[in-house]
Specification:
about 250 residues; mainly alpha
């Protein structure tokens, strides 16, 4: 049984390799679904662009996290000096309060940005990747289909003796099996691409609105609007002072 499995694998690999080389050198015909392949290429390009956005967002969160940590330390330093410098107690005091407020708002914004990053990461590295895995299976099935189609065509043009007719029947059966597999995966890819596009629009509509509202509220100094944005999207921040790694360290 193991020998038969290895033998079938070897024959299949040989046929597919032969077909692939033939296509690359322009000698073999290739089945092409222009509409589907255009959609697949668009998905791959979209994934590359979203990966770029994801990397930029991660860089932004790293820089902004450092800024918030610096503001926190500066607020503590001002508060300490306020207690130890009676002549400048008021000035140090309101600067300490300002830095603490900025720090609080910064942590709120980081919570929103982290939610944005997490959602884009899921879209790119799970949802899109899952579809592309099906695309790879489809592309392999397409190559096998063309390899066995070519094999059948070559046998059909040969002499029709008893031996050839037996091989022709076997080739026809194998061709039909690979054709069914190819058509099923082509349909699967078309469905997944359709649902992916719908899901992408839904996710990005929500996330881009979140990102815009949070960034706008933060830089406008509108603390109430910033907090309202998190409530609107059901984002919960970690309890301050919890002995856990920061959200950034968990990415």
């Amino acid at each position: 049984e193991k020998f038969d499995i290895v033998k079938k694998w070897g024959i299949n690999t040989y046929k597919c390799t032969k077909q692939l080389i033939s296509e690359r050198f322009g000698r073999g015909s290739r089945t092409v679904d222009l509409e589907l392949e255009t959609q697949i290429e668009l998905l791959r390009e979209t994934k590359r662009k979203y990966e770029c956005v994801l990397q930029l967002e991660l860089a932004l969160t790293n820089h902004f996290y450092s800024l918030v940590q610096t503001q926190h330390a500066l607020g503590d330093a001002f508060a300490d000096l306020s207690q130890k410098s009676p002549e400048l107690q008021e000035e140090f005091g309101y600067n300490a309060e300002t830095q603490k407020l900025l720090c609080k708002n910064g942590e709120t914004l980081l919570g929103a940005v982290n939610f944005f990053v997490s959602s884009i990461n899921t879209l790119v590295n799970k949802t899109m990747e899952d579809t592309l895995m099906t695309v790879k299976q489809y592309e392999t099935a397409r190559l096998e289909y063309d390899a066995y189609r070519t094999d059948l065509e070559e046998l059909s043009m040969g002499p029709r003796d008893a031996s050839t007719l037996c091989r022709l029947d076997a080739a026809q059966s194998q061709f039909q099996s690979h054709k069914d597999k190819y058509e099923k995966l082509r349909a699967d890819v078309a469905i997944k691409l359709k649902f992916l596009e719908e899901n992408k629009i839904k996710v990005m509509h929500k996330q881009l609105l979140l990102f815009h509202n949070a960034i706008s509220a933060y830089f406008a100094g509108n603390q109430q609007q910033l907090e309202q944005t998190l409530k609107q999207f059901n984002i919960k921040l970690k309890t301050p002072g919890a002995e856990k790694p920061s959200w950034l360290e968990e990415q």
